Amino acid sequence: MSGPAAAPRRRGSCKFRNNDELKSRRRLDRDVHSLFLFIGENMTDDAASVAAAAPAADPQTAADFGFEADVARLLELMTHSVYSERDVFLRELVSNAADACEKLRYEALSDEKLAAQAAAPLVTISLDQEKRTLTVADNGVGMSREELISALGTIANSGTRAFLDKLGKEKDAGFIGQFGVGFYAAFMVADHVEVATRRAGQDQAWLWSSDGKGSYQIAALPLEAAPAVGARVTLHLNADSDEFLDGWRVESVVREHSGAIAAPIDLIAAPGEEPRRIAEGVALWTKPKSDITHEQYVDFYRQMSGQLDEPALIAHWRAEGRTEYTVLAFVPGARPFDLFDPARKSKSKLYVRRVLISRDMELLPAWLRFMRIVVDSADIPLNVSREMVQKSPVAGAIGKAIATRILQELKKLADAEPEKFAEVWKNFGSVLKEGLHEDPSRRDDLFEIARFASTKSEEQTRTLKDYVADLRENQTAIYYLVGDDMKRLRASPQLEGFRARGVEVLLLDDAVDAFWVTSALGYEGKPFKSVTQGQADIDSIALVEDAKTEATPPADVADLLAALKETLADHVDDVRASTRLTDSAVCLVAPDSGLDRQLSRLLAEHGQQAAFGKPVLEINPRHEAIVALATALRAKGREAARDDQFVLLDLARVADGEHPVDAAAFAKRLTALLASRG
Ligand SMILES: Nc1ncnc2c1ncn2[C@@H]1O[C@H](COP(=O)(O)OP(=O)(O)OP(=O)(O)O)[C@@H](O)[C@H]1O
Q: Where do the Histidine kinase/HSP90-like ATPase domain residues begin and end (predicted)?
C-alpha cells in the first residue's frame, strides 16, 4: 500500500496579490463574482460583507485587487442558497457521472489506448444503510490529481466547461455541467464526501475527501481500492438525510431528474443486493418518431402526467434554427384534476441536455395549462441554480413557438378528426377561450379552432366560419347570448326575434365568454353583439316564412309604455316596445351604452356593484297579455293597473334568472291575479 501523498491544504481565507496569479485566475474571479451576485440576493448583511471585503488600499495609488474569499463561508452559502430543493444533489452527481462517461467516449475517439478502457457507460448508485453512505460510481474519464485540484478543489471552475472550450464544439456535445458548482450540492446532505478516482489512461488512483468546510485532502489510493476507471463519489449522509438511504426514494428522485440522461443507471439498494436498472439511458424524445410506438408514447405520457387516460393528441417535433429544442407534447384525454386551480399555472418539464431542470416551468401561457409537455434544449442558458431559467428570453421565445405549434396541431386535428377534436374542445375549450381574452395576438388562431353551441346546434360544433357562411341578408353582426346555464339560455325570451328571422345566436355558457366577447373586435369584419344589450337592430332582416304568417299587428302601447316608465322608474332605465320578442310578453336587456347583462352580473358577484346598472324593460306589443294590460290601463287608469305593471317587471327578472324585486309582494300580486280569474 503506498502511503498518502502530501495533501495540499487550502487555508480558510485566500488572497491573490501577485498580478500573474491574478491574471491566471481572472476567469475564476469572474465566475465567483457572478456567484456572489446571485447569492447576494439571498444572503444576510453579515454574509454580504464577506463579498464586499477589500484589502486596505493606498489612497494615493491606483491598484488592481483580487477579491478575497472566505472559502468556508462561500461553500456554506453555496450549499444552502443556490438550490431550493435538496433532491438536486443527486441530479448534479449523476450529471457529472454522465458527463465523465461522455468525456471518455470523446477522448477515446482519438486515443486507442483509451478506447480499450471505454466500456459501455454506466452509472451505479449504491446505498449502505449501516454505514449511512450513498455512492455514485461511473466508468467515465475519472480525474487525475491535478484535475481533482482544479475541478473539485476550485469552486466555480468547471472541468467540463474547460473540456468543451478545448473541444470547441459546444453545440452538439451532450455535456451538462458548465458552472463548476454542482458537485458541492453534495454537502447539503452529507457531512463528509470522498471521491475515489482513476483517470483513464493513468496508473495512479486518488482519494479526494472533504467535509465541505473550507479544506480538502488528496491522498494516493491503492489501485485495488480504486475503480478500474472513472470515479466513485461517496457521501456520508448527515443526520437530516436518512431519506436518501431508502432505495425507493432514491429511485424516484433519479427517475424524475435524471431518468433521461444518456447513461443507464443501476441502483444497489442495500449491500449485497443485485443491481437494478432504474433508468435505461435513453430519453424517449431523443429517438426518431418512426422508432417510437404509440404504446411507448402513451406509457411515457402516463408516467409523466400521473394520469391514466389515453392522450387525445401527441405531437413530437424537433425545432432547428437559431434555437434548437425537442418537444414532446400531449393533449390529455381527460381533464387534469388541477385544471381550474386558481393559480392557473402551466407546467412544462424543462430538460437541458436530458437533465430535468424544472418540472413545472411556466413555459406556456395559462390558457394552454392543460397541455403536458417535455421540452429539451441545449440552448437555454442555465443559471447556476438551474431553477432560475424561467425568465430567460430564450425560454420565452421557445414557449411562444411551442404555443404556435400546439395551435397548429389542434387545428390539424380539428380538420382531420372532428369527433376527436370535439372531445378535446369539450374538455379544454373553456380554458382555450381564456386565450381569446388574454392573448389578442392568438385570437385569430383560436377563432379557427373554437367551437360553439348556438340556436342552430345543440352541441358545441359551430365554428365562426360556419356562422359567417350562414349570415342572413342585412345581418351585420355575430350575435351571442351569455349566461351560466345552457338550458336557460335556450329558453331565453331575448332569442325569439332572432329565431323568427332565422338569425343564428351563439349560446355561450362559460364564465370567460362574457369577457372575450367584449374584448374581441369581431370575426371577418363582423362585430360580436350581445342579444341582451341595446336595440336589437334586426328589423331589416326578413322574418322566416313560419314567423310571417303568425305575426299579428302590434297594439298601440304608447300609454302603457309611459305608465311603465313612471311606475318602474326605480328599477329600470327605460321601457320600450321590443323587436326581439315574439312569444314572450317581456324581457330585460342592457342599455345601449351599458355592459352586457351577464358580464355585469359577473362583475357584481365580484363586488363591483356599480357595474350592474339598471336594465331596459322591453315589452312585446303583439302579446295578448300586453294588449290586455294596455286595454285595462285605458279603461281603469294607471293606479288600478299598478300591480300588473310590477308583475311584468318581475316576470322579466325571473326569466333572466333573477329574483323578483320583492318576492313576497310578487307572490301576493300573482295570487291576486289568479283569484281575479274566477
Ligand atoms: N464523476 C466525475 N468524473 C470526472 N470528473 C468529475 C466528476 N465529477 C465532477 N467532475 C469534475 O469536476 C468538475 C466540477 O463539477 P461540478 O459538478 O462542480 O461542476 P460542473 O458539472 O462542471 O458544472 P455545474 O455547476 O454546471 O454542474 C466537473 O466539471 C468535472 O470536471
A: 85-241
